[in-house]
Amino acid sequence: CSMIYGSTGATHFDQLAKILTGYEITGARSSGIFMGILFIAVGFLFKITAVPFHMWAPDIYEGSPTPVTAFLSIAPKISISANISRVSIYGSYGATLQQIFFFCSIASMILGALAAMAQTKVKRLLAHSSIGHVGYIRTGFSCGTIEGIQSLLIGIFIYASMTLDAFAIVSALRQTRVKYIADLGALAKTNPILAITFSITMFSYAGIPPLAGFCSKFYLFFAALGCGAYFLAPVGVVTSVIGRFYYIRLAKRMFFDTPRTWILYEPMDRDKSLLLAMTSSFITSFFPYPSPLFSVTHQMALSSYL
Amino acid sequence: MVGVLLGLGTQMYSNALRKLPYMRHPWEHLLGMGLGAVFANQMVKWEVKAQEDLDKLLLKAKQANERRYFDDDED
Questions:
Q1: How distant is the Cα of A295 from the closest Cα of chain B, in angstroms?
Q2: Is the Cβ pair B9, A281 closer than 8 Å?
Q3: Which listed site, A85, A221, B33, B62, has its alpha carbon 20 to 30 Å from A47?
Q4: Does the pLDDT value for residue B56 go beyond 70?
Q5: Which domain of life is it from (chain B) (predicted)?
Q6: Cβ–Cβ below 8 Å for B17 and A281
Q7: CA–CA separation, A130 vs A133, rounded Å?
């Protein structure tokens, strides 16, 4: 920010837009402006755990208390996506920034898919899954079109509800000291409804229809194809397919495996069960009636460009 | 109707997650049905309003584009 202010003398978005729009092709090049925009973008990418600035996420997600991890995996994604959309759309949007975001999207999708396969702890797996999902969501933003921003908003909303669901389940399981994926064995026998809920959440993360996660990924890849990102969409599809391996592995552990040590699952409190019921209902019932979310996100995307 | 079923289903799901009988505390089911009905009705009304606002915004965008490209407006 200070570099941009130092180079342009402006902090207001309207003034910055007049100075920065198309600065690469006019004669107004400045290394200060370029570095300023780059550092702002890097700062944003750090906060949303996009590759290659994701290193902190798995360790912090694993070490923090579960409610804090849930907050860290949802709130920054929403706020930073809104922030960066405003900065980029109102302030400046050059091809350089778009290339950076394309690269980060592809790298996040690939790393999220591959690194999660090696995880043995539930929270670390969810951290890598979150990194992968940031890649998908960045796809929508990288397009720079109204459909891209709309798909970003849809993706964030659905990602938030899926992540709330997942971390509520992890929080309920942590009461019984479940930390490793192997501890989930026979959850289907001790608490079958919780196992079904977890499976639905994982299948939604994997993008399996007719759950909400499928709608979000479909719209994101559709927007990527619409803006001409013909490499991004197939990478997203392939990494989704690879990611399904570890999501379905969780379901397989719950339904078909036996745990290392048998754990008595304690009943959860009412707040968690209500939250789980509401978010699971949203995930399963979104597909037949998506139009409210589509209308409002279209409106939000359009108003940011007008 | 859909809202009522959704609310009732959510409450029964919540009981099932806690490994309680599905109809434990039936007044909570009534509350869920009522809230579900209100939520569904409000959602439908809100969706209609959002669609109208979207149509107005699309018309505004179309007029702005026509002004920009056909009338050579600088703004």
A1: 6
A2: yes
A3: A221
A4: yes
A5: Eukaryota
A6: no
A7: 5
From B56's Cα to the closest Cα of chain A, the distance in A is 10
- Residues B40 and B3: beta-carbon distance below 8 Å: yes
Q: A187: Cβ–Cβ under 8 A, 6 or more apart, which residues?
A: A173, A194, A195, A198, A254, A265
- Residues with Cβ < 8 Å from A254, sequence gap 6 or more? A184, A185, A186, A187, A188, A195, A198, A199
Q: Do residues A189 and A258 lie in contact, with contact meaning Cβ atoms separated by under 8 Å?
A: no
What averages of pLDDT result for each successive group of 10 residues across chain A (306 residues)?
A: 70 70 58 78 87 87 88 90 79 68 90 88 89 90 85 92 90 75 78 89 90 91 87 90 89 81 73 88 88 88 77
Q: Is the dihedral of CA B46, B4, A168, A200 positive or negative?
A: negative
Q: Which carries the bigger pLDDT value, residue B18 or residue A23?
A: B18
Contact: B61, A281; criterion CB under 8 Å: no
Q: Give mean pLDDT, residues B40-61.
A: 88
A285 interaction partners in chain B (CB closer than 8 Å): 6
Residue B8 at interface with chain A, using a CB cutoff of 8 Å = no
State the DSSP H helix or E strand holding residue B36, giving kind and residue range, or none if neither.
helix B26-69
Q: Is A123 within 8 Å of A61 (Cβ atoms)?
A: yes
For residue A92, what pLDDT is reported?
Answer: 59
Whole-number Å distance between alpha carbons of A121 and A180: 4
Residues of B in Cβ contact (< 8 Å) with A291: 47, 51
Any residues with CB less than 8 A from the CB of A37 and at least 6 apart, and which? A4, A20, A92, A94, A96, A97
**From CA A212, how far away is CA A31, in angstroms rounded?**
43
pLDDT score, position B69: 77
| Mutation site for A-interface testing, chosen from B6, B10, B11, B14 by largest number of A Cβ within 10 Å | B14
Structure tokens at A10: 């402006």
**B38 min Cα distance to partner chain A (Å):** 15
Residue A251's pLDDT is what?
87
Give the pLDDT score at A163.
Answer: 92
Nearest neighbour of B10 by CB, restricted to A197, A278, A306? A278
Q: How far apart are CA A210 and CA A182, in angstroms?
A: 28
Please indicate if any CB of chain A lies within 8 Å of the CB of B9: yes
